[in-house]
Amino acid sequence: MTAYEIKAVQDAELDTCANVIRQSFLTVAKDFGLTPENCPSNGAFMKNERLLAEKEKGNLMYALYADDIIVGFAAIGKLPDGTFTIEKLAVLPEYRHNGYGRVLIDYAKEQIKRLGGTKISIGIIEENIVLKNWYMTNGFKSTGTKVFEHLPFTVGFMEYNL
């Protein structure tokens, strides 16, 4: 693994981060036939303005730098019941399989613990077995699924207890 650094995202970096999210999510979007028409909320179709709105809403955002460029991203949100979420976890395809995803997950867990969180919830494409297994190796447990009429896949919910 190349030396890396994780930093809080500054507003000037949001466009770059949105691009990292788009590139990262596009591989899965292609695998599952997601398009801007059938799944406009997917990260593969992330609009820069949406990322800014999520930051302004209070989501914490972190960029992982390697080779002096942003190659990874993760956002932390908080639900009304006090549960934290990890959202838009992304690593550029050419930087995958180097441990950066695990580094981002571990960093997010530490930040959530520091904020007093005791539970993390995530939502994934349930049919994405590779991703589901990856989260399970990182300590997440499957808690159920839900079909949303507006999505072309089943959402799988997973949790991690700190």
UniProtKB/TrEMBL annotation:
Keywords: Transferase
GO molecular function: acyltransferase activity, transferring groups other than amino-acyl groups
UniProt keyword Isomerase, yes or no: no
A Pfam family matched in the record: Acetyltransf_1
Domain N-acetyltransferase: 4-162
Name recorded for this polypeptide: Acetyltransferase (GNAT) domain-containing protein
